[in-house]
Amino acid sequence: MKWPWKKKTLSFEEAAKFNWELDTNAELRQKLDELAKQYTHLSEKEYRRKLLLLFRENGLVIDSDQLDMLLLLRHKTDQMLLKKEANNDEETT
Q1: Which residue from 36, 70, 78, 92 puts its CA 20 to 30 A from 12's CA?
Q2: C-alpha of 45 from chain center
């Protein structure tokens, strides 16, 4: 049974594709940079709509809640990698 309040989960493949596109797709990165420059002239709702559209154009069909989850996951992963890198630097000195 599908519960109306249950959020759609993200698969590992969806998260990996999101990160892959952000890291390797130069055209997407350029369009994201252009959109970021418009941020002060857009409402948050319009900015997020355009952001999701850019992802859809690149084969990433996600909704706003999934975007939040993916961005949080990416942020936390970056924090863990930076912490690990800092620990490795401390061990070598």
Answers
A1: 36
A2: 17
User: Cβ distance 66 to 10 under 8 Å?
Assistant: yes
93 pLDDT band, cuts 50/70/90, is low
18 C-beta neighbours (distance < 10 Å), count: 22
- pLDDT tens readout for residues 25-83: 999 999 999 999 999 999 999 999 999 999 999 989 999 999 999 999 999 988 888 88
As a whole number of angstroms, the distance between CA 55 and CA 7 comes to 20
State the pTM of this model.
0.74
Q: 69: which 2 tokens? A: 């989850």
Tell me whether residue 22 is exposed, middle or buried, using C-beta atoms within 10 angstroms of its C-beta: 0 to 12, 13 to 18, 19 or more: middle
Q: What DSSP state is assigned to residue 42?
A: S
Cα–Cα distance, 10 to 61 (Å, whole number): 11
